[in-house]
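C-alpha cells for chain A. Residues wanted.
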C-alpha cells in the first residue's frame, strides 16, 4: 500500500554524550575508484580508513548536476526538479523547509557551513541562514591559504584544515556541532594542495 514507507524499530542504546556530526558532500568522487566501496585500485586509502570510523552511505546517488543542487537536496530533503535548479534564489526557496541544520540547531548544536567559494553565489548564505545555519566560513575567511584558484577560491586542503580548527575549538568549549563541508575534490585542487 505504501511502497516508500520504511519502519525502523526504536533504538534502546543510551548515548552518554550526543555525537558531533560533520557532513562532507564530495563532488566528482565516483564509487568505482573508492576503496571503501570495494574498488581494487587502492586510490583512496585515507578515505577508506575514515569510512571505518564513521558512517558510510554506500547506496548514495547524485541529487543534482551541480554542487549547489546536491547540497540543497541533501540538507533540505527536497529533490532537484526540472525548472527549480536555482531554488534557493526563487520564491519557492522562501518557503520553510525541514532542514538538517534546523533540526540540529533545535537540539542544541552549533551549526556551521565551510565552503571555499562565495556564499553570495546561488544565495547560499541568505537561504541557509533561514534553514538553521549559524556561521558561514567562505572564500575570504581563510588566512594564508596554501593555494587559491582565481575562480574557485582556496583549495579543499585549506577548507579541511580550517574545519579541523573550527571543530577542535567547538569541542574544547564542550559545544556540540553540525558542520557542513561541500568539498569539490576536483583534480586541479587536489593536485595543487
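Reply:
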Amino acid at each position: 500500500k505504501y511502497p516508500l514507507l520504511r519502519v525502523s524499530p526504536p533504538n534502546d542504546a543510551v548515548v552518554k554524550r550526543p555525537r558531533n556530526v560533520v557532513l562532507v558532500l564530495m563532488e566528482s568522487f565516483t564509487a568505482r575508484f573508492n576503496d571503501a566501496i570495494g574498488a581494487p585500485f587502492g586510490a583512496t586509502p585515507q578515505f577508506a580508513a575514515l569510512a571505518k570510523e564513521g558512517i558510510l552511505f554506500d547506496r548514495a546517488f547524485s541529487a543534482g548536476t551541480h554542487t549547489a543542487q546536491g547540497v540543497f537536496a541533501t540538507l533540505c530533503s527536497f529533490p532537484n526538479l526540472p525548472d527549480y535548479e536555482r531554488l534557493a534564489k526563487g520564491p519557492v526557496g522562501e518557503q520553510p523547509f525541514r532542514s538538517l541544520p534546523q533540526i540540529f540547531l533545535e537540539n542544541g548544536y552549533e551549526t556551521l557551513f565551510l565552503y571555499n567559494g562565495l556564499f553570495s553565489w546561488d544565495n547560499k548564505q541568505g537561504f541557509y541562514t533561514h534553514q538553521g545555519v549559524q556561521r558561514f566560513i567562505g572564500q575570504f575567511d581563510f588566512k594564508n591559504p596554501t593555494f587559491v584558484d582565481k575562480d574557485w577560491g582556496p583549495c579543499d586542503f585549506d577548507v579541511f584544515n580550517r574545519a579541523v580548527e573550527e571543530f577542535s575549538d567547538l569541542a574544547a568549549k564542550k559545544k556540540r556541532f553540525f558542520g557542513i563541508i561541500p568539498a569539490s575534490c576536483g583534480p586541479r585542487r587536489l593536485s595543487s594542495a
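The mean pLDDT is 83. Residues 36 and 51 are 7 Å apart (CA to CA).
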